[in-house]
Design a protein that fits this description.
This protein is mostly beta strands. A hairpin with a 3-residue loop joins strand 11 and strand 12. The protein has 6 helices and 29 strands. Helices cover 13% and strands 48% of the residues. The strands form 5 sheets. Strands 2, 4, 5, 7, 9, 10, 11, 12, 13 and 14 form a 10-stranded mixed beta sheet that branches. Strands 8, 15, 16, 17, 18, 19, 20 and 21 form an 8-stranded mixed beta sheet that branches. The chain folds into 5 domains: 36 residues; 87 residues, RNA Polymerase Alpha Subunit, Chain A, domain 2 (Beta Complex), CATH 2.170.120; 92 residues, RNA Polymerase Alpha Subunit, Chain A, domain 2, CATH 2.170.120.40; 88 residues, YbbR-like domain (RNA Polymerase Alpha Subunit, Chain A, domain 2, Beta Complex); 99 residues, RNA Polymerase Alpha Subunit, Chain A, domain 2 (Beta Complex), CATH 2.170.120. The protein starts with a helix and ends with a helix.
Length: 433
């Protein structure tokens, strides 16, 4: 049986794969034995070592230099040094006590052991042997406005490039205090080299500048955004008429363009595409204030905030042609006054014996007008609880047909005498007496 086993064992050495495996195994065991018993040192290079700099005083922090990777040569037993990794070594500064103010410094580096593997020596100094660092105090954050520096070189005919709209108008900047404080302006910069015919949006990068207009690197600062969406609205250019907005025009009085002159009569606007804007209105003109002498009004234009006033015209002059109108003083008597909305316990009578009003209207109507065709209405609604004394009340003048095209110049008031309303019982008692 032993002979059979010996033959089988010996036969394995005729197998090439077994022989190769056996040779490698023997060589490995031999290398371990020699490496563990030899007194010669092996040199090994450890790379990609992080730099850990010590804390600074005066609230100073590192803003550069710590991102550098170092390497160092070590020597010792081959089995030991080949198993030392970058995690077993850290590189730090030899001395940072001289760093007391913000600025840039050169710091010498030294290697130190940080793991349980310590049976080796440093064969050389660190590479690099020193590193430049920038130190400063940390600014938690400063909010600054973003300046629109979007440039449009060309737009299509009959188009207008309106003010750029930025998706953000402010930015928050943190980092090295001295750098943050040196920023005087933050610009959203982009230049359109093509001709624009439609509203267009782009991503515009943010650029930092100091007070002298020099660019500031973002190396030592961070911002909550690095770009903004910049939208350039492209509007259509239109010439539209200016239409006066007039109220209190007398009934049946024909006030058309033949008796109204507007200067300027048109205005140039940039309007949103597919807009139905066809005219611009003026602010309100109260026609009751129009007279033979007071027939010219300068009124502001009411322009939609979605439009751009290319002409920069803010107002228009509206002139009413009063050549076909005549003025006439009409004296109203007690019979012309009508008191409305008296209180339940109130008796109201007009104290004025008469009231003279200046009436304006078409000449053919004014020549025939008398006080019989005039009604002076007095509304007591807001004085209905007053039962004794005198109050001054406004008068509303109305005209009977066919004089409804007339109106009065100015406003008028009358004095109204108030007294308690007598009941039926009180009236009966007085009659019996």
């Amino acid at each position: 049986m032993n002979k059979l086993n010996n033959k089988l064992s010996f036969k394995l050495f005729y197998n090439d794969k077994f022989v190769m495996f056996f040779s490698i195994f023997v060589a490995f065991i031999s290398w371990i034995y020699v490496a563990s018993t030899t007194q010669e040192s092996s040199i090994f290079t450890v790379t990609d070592i992080s730099i850990n700099l010590p804390d600074l005083t005066n609230e100073l922090k590192y803003f550069s230099g710590t991102d550098v990777k170092a390497e160092v040569k070590i020597s010792g037993n081959a089995l030991v040094v080949t198993n030392v990794t970058k995690d077993d070594i850290y590189v730090t500064a030899a001395d940072v006590s001289f760093i007391t103010e913000p600025g840039e410094y050169t710091v010498d580096l030294v290697p130190k052991k940080s793991g349980v593997k310590t049976d080796y020596t440093f064969e050389s100094s660190v590479s690099p042997s020193s590193v430049k660092v920038f130190v400063d105090r940390y600014d938690e954050g400063r909010v600054m406005p973003i300046t629109d520096k979007i440039t449009v070189n060309s737009v299509a005919p009959s188009c207008y490039a309106s003010q750029t709209v930025l998706s953000r108008t402010t930015i928050k900047i943190s980092g090295a205090e001295s750098v943050v404080n040196s920023i005087a302006e933050v610009d959203a910069e982009y230049t359109f080299d093509t001709t624009l015919s439609e509203t267009t949006m782009v991503k515009a990068p943010l650029i930092f500048y100091d007070s002298k207009g020099n660019k500031i690197s973002s190396k030592y600062i961070t911002a909550d955004i690095t770009e903004v969406d910049a939208t350039v609205p492209i509007l259509d250019v239109k010439h539209v008429p200016i239409i006066p907005k007039i109220i209190n025009i007398p009934e049946l009085l024909d006030i058309d363009s033949s008796v109204i002159q507007v200067e300027p009569s048109t205005i140039e606007l940039a309007v949103p595409k597919n807009s139905n804007i066809t005219s611009v209105s003026t602010s309100v003109i109260d026609f009751s204030k129009v007279t033979k002498k007071n027939n010219t009004f300068v009124v502001e234009l009411e322009i939609s905030p979605y439009c751009k006033n290319i002409s920069s015209i803010e107002s228009a002059e509206v002139v009413f042609d009063m050549s076909g109108m005549t003025e006439k003083n009409v004296t109203l008597q007690q019979s012309n006054f009508v008191i409305e909305n008296q209180g339940e316990n109130q008796t109201a009578t007009v104290a004025n014996k008469s009231l003279s009003v200046l009436v304006i209207g078409p000449s053919e109507k004014i020549n025939l007008l008398t006080s019989v065709s005039v009604i002076a209405k007095i509304d007591m609604s807001d004085k209905s609880t007053v039962t004794e004394g005198y109050v001054e009340r406004p008068v509303k003048i109305e005209f009977k047909d066919p004089f409804t095209q007339c109106w009065v110049e100015g406003t008028y008031t009358v004095n109204v005498k108030l007294s308690p309303k007598q009941t039926v019982k009180e009236e009966s008692s007085k009659a019996a007496t």
